[in-house]
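Working notes for the structural subgroup meeting. M.R. asked for a predicted model of this chain before we commit to crystallization trials. I am recording the input and output together here so anyone reviewing the notebook later can reproduce the run.

Input as submitted:
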Amino acid sequence: VRHYTRLSNKNFGLDTGFYPLGSCTMKYNPKINEEIARNPKMMNLHPYQPEESVQGALEMMHEVGLHLSEISGMDEVSLQPAAGSHGEMTGLMMIKAFHEKNGDFKRKNIILPDSAHGTNPSSAQVVGFNIIEIKSTPQGDVDIEALKEHLNDE
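Returned structure, recorded in token form:
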């Protein structure tokens, strides 16, 4: 038993520490989500199934959306972003739509540190922003003076 317990401790588990960079989808998922995803009524669903065969899942997603709207105070929420990069891109799309709805078309730049995750500049560029990279100091911090040089109304 000790041998197998020691081997199992070599595996990384979400209940024993943080996941490394790049696994943002898994970091904050509670174990109950895994139980629900393994339920045969959920795991055998397919995106192209006829709507009449997935009414229970659609009702559940609708109710989750209503609850999240109430909790967050927002009019609507999206359950679509399935990963951190999806959520990041969705957020950037919302920022862009907000500014454009308010007639502000000059905000075209996104400032990112050179230490940003690879999806950060990719998402910003796909959404249509220009990326301004701010170099780090030798200590690994954002160079505040370099940042100040790029602060403007764009």
